[in-house]
Design a protein that fits this description.
150 residues; mainly alpha; 0% strand; 5 helices
Length: 150
């Protein structure tokens, strides 16, 4: 499979979804029960947002603004799930260093249990609004960049 060349739309998708990821993680960290233990969740979500925006939203442009808005929401949902997975993976690695697991399977299962526990904070209005509105705006910005920079 040949790799695609970088485009202005992919760059705009990476930048805009990095911003969406940062804002979403900021709202998410405010709703965490132990907000002081959030660590570098905002910066991590911005990096994940840039990667997800480049790979998921970047190639889907050129079909109009309505399709771009839908693709933006889809990309924001993928971003939220990926960031939640990486947060749970980081917590599992911290716990494994502290020798809290008996087997490797316990550690792997704990990632998904942590994701289920931490997903409650995704239902807040700030996070949900960022996924919806941020996804739509980032998708439309990406479509606009695709039309301007060919």
């Amino acid at each position: 499979m040949a790799s695609q060349m970088p485009t202005g739309a992919k760059l705009m998708a990476a930048v805009s979804f990095a911003v969406v990821g940062f804002v979403m993680a900021n709202y998410y960290a405010m709703n965490m029960p132990d907000a002081s233990a959030a660590g570098p969740i905002r910066e991590g979500a911005a990096v994940v947002g840039a990667l997800i925006g480049w790979t998921v939203m970047g190639p889907t442009v050129g079909k109009g603004y309505v399709e771009a808005a839908g693709s933006g929401i889809k990309t924001a949902v993928v971003l939220a799930v990926a960031a939640l997975f990486l947060l749970a993976l980081r917590e599992m690695l911290d716990n494994s260093v502290k020798m809290r697991y008996d087997t490797a399977l316990d550690a792997i299962l704990d990632v998904f249990q942590t994701m289920a526990q931490r997903s409650r904070a995704l239902l807040s209005l700030g996070v949900f609004g960022t996924i919806l509105l941020g996804g739509i705006i980032a998708g439309m910005l990406t479509e606009n960049a695709s039309r301007r920079w060919k």
